[in-house]
Amino acid sequence: MRTIKQLKWSSGILILMVLGLLYLVLYSLFVHTPAPGITEFYFADRITDAHRILIDRYNRLNAGKIRVIPVDFPNIDFSTNERKEILARSLRGAEDGIDLIAVDIVWVKRFARWCEPLGKYFTAQELNRIVPDALYSCHGDSELVAVPLDMVQTSLYYREDLLKSLPGGDEAIRALQNDMTWPDFLKLRLTLGYQGPFYVFPAADYEGFICNYIENLLSLKPDYFSTVGFNFDTPEGRRALQQMVDLLHKDRASPAVVTSFTEAPSYEYFIRNDGLFLRGWTTYDMDFNDQPYDREKQQHMKKASLPYIPGGRPASLFGGWNLMISQFSRKKEAVVDFVKFLLRDDSQEVFYSESRYYPVVTSFYEDSTSLRKYPEIARIRELLKTGVHRPAVKDYTNYSKIMSHYFSLAIRNKITVDEAVEGATRDINADQSLAVER
């Protein structure tokens, strides 16, 4: 397996890091000499245990004909923003290098210009097997340009062992099994009297922080982006951000250090400092198996629904990864064959059993064998009903950068919530105007 090593920050200049990592990717690709008579292609993703099992299985089934070579982007080494920049720069170079890429579901429209339209490769019957929410982000300008690989949702984690050790902990665990508003959740901090970190969440200046904000926003107004757009200078826009700011500066429920955290550091801090509650993705059970911080503590982590703002409704943001094929690849037929292998029912089950990604095929949630084997599917189906999507617009990543810049200033108490939503709205409007002129 070709694993890209972590490049540490030395100067704090993102462009140098991206160029350095891109060099490592290209070096990994081109030092390899293909075996005669075998079609080899490169697949870039975070290579989990499920990926390893399925890539090995596919390579054995196609021995002597096709070989998939994985290029790994470990969570520990790469934020989603860093991974996006590396892949975009690689494709922008129009090189026959990486053939198949896994992209965050909100990158699809940005990457569509460099990737192969997929409608001609998939029949209506094949697409009808896929969960509609998983296909939501797979089109660019009404054309299928991606297919889903897996799904995740946001979730509240808690340390069951710590809760059980506290007065009232058993009652709190029972209460967590139902939907809970933020005020009711924050009351637990007082009733439990826990002295360690109460609620940990990633609040650095990056996309993961904006996932939290959008989740709050769509809880208050599910049709926000279709009716209001990217104007956040609204009552809902302010309330969604104020709730996050208050966690640090009013409720004192989260430590100030969360403003420097992306996903992996927030998880590490939570484990090492005996945090009580953590905002994460539903894959956290297995996301850090390769480099566990403390297996004993991690085995006590349980899931519940995230709290929601009063007046809104429970909401859990959809995440996940879609597959896109580089238009510069000269091995498209072999790549499509592998993609269809990954979408088989048995392959999708491996993504769940080994890495906790939600399968993207409807059969998993309906088949009696699956329901007997995984009784938690009933709970997952209920959680799926609360799922909300980030807006599927071409310039979303640009808008997200603007939002995270201003909103991270607010959560660090550098500007007010009003100034943050006004600034983000103003700059997004300016960006939209420039896009029209271009």
How would you explain this protein's 3D organization?
- 47% of the residues lie in helices and 14% in strands.
- It is an alpha/beta fold and 438 residues long.
- The chain has two domains: 2-151 and 320-388, D-Maltodextrin-Binding Protein, domain 2 (3-Layer(aba) Sandwich), CATH 3.40.190; 153-317 and 393-437, D-Maltodextrin-Binding Protein, domain 2 (3-Layer(aba) Sandwich), CATH 3.40.190.
- A hairpin with a 2-residue loop joins strand 5 and strand 6.
- The protein starts with a strand and ends with a helix.
- Residues 1-21 have low confidence and may be disordered.
Key terms:
single chain; D-Maltodextrin-Binding Protein, domain 2; ten-stranded mixed beta sheet; two-stranded antiparallel ribbon; 14% strand
Topology:
Blueprint: E1 2-3, H1 14-30, E2 39-45, H2 49-61, E3 66-72, H3 80-92, E4 100-104, H4 108-111, H5 124-128, H6 132-135, E5 139-140, E6 143-144, E7 147-159, H7 160-164, H8 169-176, H9 182-192, E8 199-200, H10 207-220, H11 224-227, H12 235-249, H13 263-272, E9 277-281, H14 284-287, H15 295-298, E10 301-304, E11 316-325, H16 332-342, H17 345-355, H18 363-366, H19 368-373, H20 377-384, E12 387-388, H21 396-411, H22 417-437
